[in-house]
Amino acid sequence: MWTIAGTLTPVPALDRLDLVAGPVAAALRSMADGARFAVAEIDPTLADTAEFCAHYGSPLEASANCVVVAGKRGDTVRYAACLVLATTRADVNGVVRRRLDARKASFAPMDDAVSLSGMEYGGITPVGLPADWPVLLSPEVAAAPELVIGSGIRGSKLLVPGEVLAKLPGAEVVDGLAR
């Protein structure tokens, strides 16, 4: 079923919630589309996208990276998750900054991203993030028939159709998000 799996052995994510972070497991259990996610265990030292794709034979163009962005205006900080294909980068200083109505936007500090998401650095995923965070998706991600994304931990990956990600709470498909 998963043509992008390479040498991975995906199983229904709901059958192996031990392979995802706590907030991800809670979100998957509560989602109508939770059964459309698969999970595959990986070597956590190979979680970074380029190494993961090279080792497991999963195409780079079928991987999506999730970055946490902090936008500041005065003393107010707003967070968002941005999901773009691994072959592109999120337009943090343009599109994301404007969407967050911020004077300045940048990648959130690692400690903030980890503590606020409840996920491991290098495994953060748009599934199970705080409810008040917008989840910004590039149109290419939303349209992808299947993607590999983080699972909230470095020891596994989720496989999911892009259309399911576009239905996540707070999800918005944003033109021009990816460069």
From TrEMBL:
Pfam families: tRNA_edit
Domain YbaK/aminoacyl-tRNA synthetase-associated: 44-168
Gene3D superfamilies the record matches: YbaK/aminoacyl-tRNA synthetase-associated domain
GO molecular function, one term: aminoacyl-tRNA deacylase activity
Domain of life: Bacteria
Name by which UniProt lists this protein: Prolyl-tRNA editing enzyme YbaK/EbsC (Cys-tRNA(Pro) deacylase)
Organism from which the protein derives: Saccharothrix ecbatanensis
Organism classification: Bacteria, Bacillati, Actinomycetota, Actinomycetes, Pseudonocardiales
